[in-house]
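The protein record filed here:
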Amino acid sequence: MSVIRLFNLISVGIFGMVLSALFCDICWTRKNRLLFEAVMAVIFLLQGILYFRVDADLVERLYPLVTHLPLAVVLCLLGRKILWPVISVLTAYLCCQLRHWLALLLVVICSGGQMAEDLAELLLTVPMLILLLRFAARPVRFLSHYPRSVQVCFGLVPAVYYCFDYATRVYTNLVFEGGLFVAEFMPSVCSGAYLAFVYYISKEGRIRGQLEETCDSLDLQVTQAVCEIDALREAQRRTRAYRHDMRHHMQYILSCMENGRSVQAQEYIRRICSQIDAAVVVPFCENESANLIFSSFAERAKKSGVAFEISANIPQVIAVSENDLCVLLSNALENAIYACRKVQKDGKSAKIEVSAYEENGTIFVQIVNTCGDDVVFYHGIPVTGEPGHGIGVQSICAIVEQYGGLYSFSAKDHRFILRVSLRGGAARQCENPESYGETVDSAQIRVDS
């Protein structure tokens, strides 16, 4: 064996092992580097023993067991993953073929032999390694954070090529015999993988677009809820100011009456009462955010002619954030009022009943509203084909999932019932749904945090 050939085999081994390691998302501490370098040294030592003591051809046949398997095992241990280190080794093997093909191209152009090929591969090792580390290593590592299905799709071509190369070149001579099936196999695999990739990217693009639209809608809802809360707080502040200034109002009225200006006093009283009524916030519970939302929707229901009953006992300090509580209550009550208005168009009366309380750190909310016969459920979730609707239900479900709670939607006897619990910790199945509200046919949804 020539010296150039020996150095070429060593360089391709280093090339593949370094790429395999840097394709993995591993924290390369000093301890990890030393362990990996020790494994590389052991692999080269074993290869050298087989080359010089046994048979060089046998080494190529045993290369998967002598090199690739221990390399994948140590990367699995260092990265604490199983699938991706294997894909990294297969991808690095595929990259080695790029180095080999470029060397063959140079040999064909320069009309060289085996020694020229070994020399070309040796000279291309460092530049190819630098280019791949610069432009390919980070994107490949990034794919390790994708779902397992994406990782499998990415590793499919390297895996197929690995099996194809050993089956047709190392263990048999099919690739050199020029069979039509062998010649067309890998181009067909690449074509199929490319079409699958295009389909997957298109599907991901559609999903991403839908998610972006949902996020934009949710952001708008949060902004509207915050603005509404700010307006209600300002109204509450004005009410307190009116109460504080009541003594001055009474003195002015008394002065008008003492001076015989009763009409002016009456007009002043009406104006002050109108301003106070417009700014009043009914105290439904201790929690300021929930109270402001309840007060706002109670006023909206009153203007729409919808009966509105609230029984709330939510303390001021709770584990649910103000924004999440406001978005949840606003969406739920918005949907309830919308459903009641649809019922009113048919000349029927409508009513909303709200029950909310806190117990052992868990917030329970039940909203019952009058509804029609057109409520459609899909996997226990109400769905609608009306444009601009349905985002509210998604918001409610998302917030419940965030807090590891439970939610259920049901409809019976022209009554739509929403039940929600928000709490910390892992979700658990509601053992007795009838204990929370009246008995209905509902689909309990379990959500893990």
Summary: Confidence is low (pLDDT under 50) at residues 425-449. The beta strands are 307-313, 351-359, 362-370, 376-378, 381-383, 406-412, 415-422, 442-446.
